[in-house]
């Protein structure tokens, strides 16, 4: 499974990418929205996108996911945020939330959940529509 990690914080991006690589995932890194969108189009086999909620002043992680959905629907998005007050109770069916600060175990659990959601949606489109998005607490 290919994972795209998008974060404008270099240390966070590197640590998340290293953790996922050691767990056996093929990982792509993007430090901003433009790079993430380019990689998303270049590598359509990316199944899970881990993105920070606040990427830059022009676009959020949720808005970036919306742009990615226009060209590739079969992905799971993990929205990471340290702004707990900004986290709402409802998200699209293909998105889950990971609260910052998170550790290696929480990140791996979130990605495994995203992979499982993709497998579930492959097995049954009806399950995909009825599944509630999980809030992944760290």
Give a written overview of the molecule:
- It holds the Pfam family Response_reg.
- This is Response regulator.
- Helix 2 runs parallel beside helix 3.
- This protein has one domain: Response regulator (Rossmann fold), CATH 3.40.50.2300.
- It has 5 helices and 6 strands.
- About 45% of the residues lie in helices and about 20% in strands.
- By secondary structure, the protein is an alpha/beta fold.
- The two termini are about 25 Å apart.
- A 6-stranded parallel β-sheet has the order 2-1-3-4-5-6, sandwiched between helices.
Compact summary:
This protein is α/β, with parallel strands linked by helices. The protein has helices at 10-22, 33-42, 61-71, 104-123, 125-130, and strands at 2-6, 26-30, 46-52, 76-81, 95-99, 135-136.
Model regions low in confidence, pLDDT < 50 over at least 5 residues:
124-134
How much of the sequence is in beta strands? 15-25%
Number of helices: 5
CATH class: Alpha Beta
CATH domain fold name: Rossmann fold
The ordered string of helix (H) and strand (E) elements is EHEHEHEEHHE
CATH architecture tag: 3-Layer(aba) Sandwich
Q: Keywords, please?
A:
alpha/beta, Sig_transdc_resp-reg_receiver, Rossmann fold, 138 residues, six-stranded parallel beta sheet
Secondary structure elements and pairings:
Blueprint (H helix, E strand, L loop, with lengths): L1 E5 L3 H13 L3 E5 L2 H10 L3 E7 L8 H11 L4 E6 L13 E5 L4 H20 L1 H6 L4 E2 L2
Parallel strand pairs: 1-2, 1-3, 3-4, 4-5, 5-6
Helix pairs in contact: 2-3
